[in-house]
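Researcher: Here's the sequence for the chain we discussed earlier.
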Amino acid sequence: MSRVVVVHGVGRQLDTAETLLAEVEPALRGGVGLALRRDPTLGRLTDDDIACAGYGDLYRQAGTRGEPYYRAEDVEPGFEAELLETWWREAARLDPRIPGPDTVGPDGTGSGPAARGAVGRLAGRPLSVDRVRRALHALTRTRFFGAVSDRLLISDLKQVRRYFTEPKLREAVRARAAELITPDTRVVVGHSLGSVVAYEVLCALRPERPPLTLVTLGSPLGLAGLVFDRLQPAPQQDSTGVWPAPVKQWTNLADSGDVVALVRELAPRFGPEVLDLLVDNGSEMHSMRAYLTAVETGTAIAMGLTR
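Model: Thanks. This is the structure I predict for it:
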């Protein structure tokens, strides 16, 4: 059985576990190889050590040709609107050249104080199509989302929203990861939404099983309201996240320009045992491949394999 299990994020609905592995394995082995150059005493990968939990097919719609042609009008109020606005605000903070949400009011016009705090007022109310268009226009012209069309960006919003609001889908996604995590598994790697899936699956494991290392990449786990407060199990009364009992070490890696990993330090949310590290992914701030080839990621995985 595989000692390293990788859980991907959204936007991979045309991939299977096998096609993902063809992309993930060389990147992951490369990152571990860099780590071993620095410290040859770390754990090494052997053949068949890596498996990918593919769940993208669960998002594919039967009888359609590819992804629906989403338009601004298809962004739903509530979760999708809030997440879009959150990404927009963070992208504008990272790149002053981008007009941010504070330059337009909730109705898509105006500027100044009326626009501030709009995120909190969007839940459950219609979001003007003009404002959605402004957000999409801004985001798809950033270095982060520049290669993504409006259509795919809206699709990503919907995939994240569906995970948190459709219990059967959520259960099915987690089952894909859970079936790969065996007593032989030593490291679980979660990228983007996959870090949420990995976290929830590990929280459900028996604490007496062999200890595991969790490595999260570009994770939104710390995002209050939209993600953190929707986790299963729910955060504790002191607003700290539940620690997955089988996890002996947790390394969280984030690029400083990664809009999805808006809360880049998870230790304040889940405890000081989390090791938060910044990495430099260049122009591919949220890329799973870029994260996996980082020596910091390779070190975290190799440490988990050290016995």
